[in-house]
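Following up on my earlier thread - several people asked me to post the actual chain instead of describing it. Fair enough. Here it is, all 127 residues.
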Amino acid sequence: MKKSTAVVLAGLIGVGMGAAGTGALYAAANPPVYMVADNTITDPAKYKSEYLPLAQAAIKAHGGVYVAAGTGTAIDGEPPHGRVVILKWDSLEQVKKWRYSPEYVKAREIGEKYAKFRTFAVDGVAQ
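Reply from S.P.:
Thanks for posting it. Predicted structure:
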């Protein structure tokens, strides 16, 4: 291999490693945001067939990731009122873009026929 080719190759590898390191530092400095929902469902069949597919598609399209979903178990205090969902997002801004997106606004209008929603966001912690 020519010396100039080796130098160029080494430079490209260095740039790639630097970019990966910068991404890791950004992720460490900006922990994710978790959205927690406690949804009281009044019509499970229609919630599942009419609301959930639209909501899940909007969540995926806007970068949300499911972390947990189910009935939840009380450890202290009152139990959750309904279905508990935890989603992970890159930022609070991303959560708000999803929540007020046309896709989710449409899904939410349908969902409100079959459930009462209680949602909030909480910052993740740096690891």
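DSSP finds four helices and five strands in the chain. That should answer part of your original question.
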